[in-house]
Each structure stands twice: as C-alpha cells, then as structure tokens.
Amino acid sequence: MAWFKRKKENISPDSKKSELPDGQWSKCEDCGEIIHNKQLEVNLWTCPKCNYHFRIGSDQYISLVLDKGTFKEHDKKMRSADPLEFEDTKKYIDRVNSTIKKTGLNDAVKTGTGKIDGKKVAFACMDFNFIGGSMGSVVGEKIARIIDVAYEEKIPLIIISQSGGARMMEGAYSLMQMAKTSARLARLADAKVPYISVLTDPTTGGVTASFAMLGDIIIAEPKALIGFAGPRVIKQTIGKDLPEGFQRSEFLLENGFIDFIVPRQQLKEKLSLVIDYLT
User: Fold this and answer.
1) Between vectors from CA 233 to CA 185 and to CA 221, what angle results, nearest 5°?
2) By C-alpha distance, which of 74, 205, 209 is closest to 144?
3) Is the pLDDT of residue 15 over 70?
4) Distance, CA of 4 to CA of 151 (rounded, Å)
5) Beta strand pairing status for 195-203 and 109-116?
6) Where are the domains of the chain?
7) pTM (2 d.p.)
8) Does residue 20 surpass a pLDDT of 90?
9) d(CA 119, CA 226)
10) Cβ distance 263 to 46 under 8 Å?
11) Are residues 34 and 23 in contact, defined by beta-carbon separation less than 8 angstroms?
12) Are 255 and 43 in contact (CB under 8 A)?
C-alpha cells in the first residue's frame, strides 16, 4: 500500500477565525446575543432578545424623546476650565480637549428647549461618553441655566441623568454644583413648574445626591444602576451582604425611591402623558 504525505499544509495551525466586521455588530452584555447595529438602532438600542438597554448618548436621547427638528441647544460653546491645574496620568485640560475631539461634545450635558408631542419643554441630557458623564462646573452651570429657562417660560423641565458622579479633577468646584442645581430646583418647585427626572444606567454619586432624585416624577429605565456609593463600598461599610438586585431600578421602585420604570420604546409616550397630567 502506498502512503502519501502532504508536503505543504494548506491550513495554517495559527490561522484565526475571522472576526466580526468592526463597528457593525454589538454583543448584549446581559444575554450575549450578537446584534447588527442597524437592528439595534431600529430597536432604540435595546436587545431584541432580552430587552437589555444599551447605554446611548445625548444625541440618541434627543432623537427618541423630542419631536423631530424641535431641539434648540443652549450654551453649546461652554467648556470646562482647569481652576486647580489638576494632573493625574495626564493634565486635566489635555483630557478635556482630547475628549472634546473624540466625542464631538463640549462637556457631559446637552441642554436646550424642544417639544414632545407639540408641548414645549426645557430639556437636559447627560452623556456618559464625556469623562463618564461626570458633573463639573460646566455641567452644573448648564443645568442651572436650563432650570432658569423653565422657570422664566413656565414650561416643564426634563433632565435625563447618566453619570458616574462628581468630577474629581475640579474638586470643591464640582461639589458646589450639587447645591447650586438643588437651590434652582427648589425655586422651580415654589413656582409649581413640573420637573421630570429620568434615570438611566448609571446614575450615581453627586448627581444622584442632587438634581437626579429631586423630580416631581422620577422615571428610570429597566435595570439601571442608581445609587450614591457603589455596592462594594457599601458592603465594606456596613459589613453585610446586600439584597439581590440592590441599586437597580426594580429594587428602587419596590422600595419607593422612584415612580415608574419605563422601557425606552415607551419613554416619549410616558413623558407626554406625565406632562399632560402635571400641567
């Protein structure tokens, strides 16, 4: 019997499986489903299999919440300074400039006016893509100014929060924004102008401890992380295991911290109904 030996290997043992085309597919962090980005966009950036809500930016929220073409941005050119000349792995001012160039955003919030089903609202939406949605002086000032617009025009205010908390690079300047925004909202409440707060994943730290939890109505997206300190820090502090689902929307609704959990597909409709009710 003749034996034949292949002189050359046609398949390299080091060859790798072809990867998914970059930028065209996303993997659900909850169920692992692989989803084409076009399908994800049509489904408002939620998983069609398990309804996991992907994090999205301020532009996406503007497009899905406000009537098309009605958003008029305020204070667009406002940018962070570097009052403390802060430096960690890089200079803070360099971090800000590189983030502006990368994201096309000038800071971690967009504010302005728009319409929901024809009803004019003052609107602010935070963006996690800009230094983790952290609240610095610019974020606090822009939110304070849009609260003033709602106060002066007597129109409902909607703030969509998405933040890791205060911006440490600005130290006390950042913490001062908690008091400033809260004081503005107290004046708004005295004028009986409605404020609807929408909490998305994540809403934590100084944002939770100020304007995010001061709404007349507080709405959250499903399974959003909402809290002040992180679960690990709390567990170390109290020395006990935390309840299952602690600091998620469903846990907060059960314990009375929020009013509604609303899937992204129903958010505009719910906001419109709440505005009608409050006005």
Assistant:
1) 50
2) 74
3) no
4) 87
5) unpaired
6) 23-54, 56-278
7) 0.90
8) no
9) 29
10) yes
11) no
12) no
- How far apart, in whole angstroms, are the C-alpha atoms of residue 12 and residue 14? 5
Answer whether 226's CB lies under 8 Å from 208's CB: yes
Q: Which of the four CATH numbers 3.40.1010.10, 3.30.460.10, 3.90.226.10, 3.40.630.30 does domain 56-278 have?
A: 3.90.226.10
How is residue 228 written in tokens? 């002040």
Amino acid at 209: A
Written as six digits, the tokens of 190 are 């005295």
CA separation for the pair 108, 210 (Å, rounded) = 16
Q: What is the pLDDT, as a whole number, of residue 94?
A: 96
CA distance 124 to 258: 19
Helix (H, G, I), strand (E, B) or coil at 24: coil
- Give residue-wise pLDDT tens across range 116-129: 999 999 999 999 99
Residue 244 burial class via C-beta count within 10 angstroms: exposed 0-12, middle 13-18, buried 19 and up: exposed
> Tokens 């790798």 belong to which residue?
16
pLDDT single digits (tens) 226-243: 999 888 888 889 988 888
Task: Summarize pLDDT for 144-174 with one digit per residue, the tens.
Answer: 999 999 999 999 999 999 999 999 999 999 9
Q: Integer distance in angstroms from the first to the last C-alpha of the chain? A: 93
The beta strands (E) that lie in the chain are given as 25-27, 34-36, 72-74, 109-116, 119-126, 157-163, 195-203, 217-220, 260-261
Q: Write down the residue that tokens 């996991």 correspond to.
A: 52
Up-side HSE of residue 164: CA atoms within 13 Å toward CB? 11
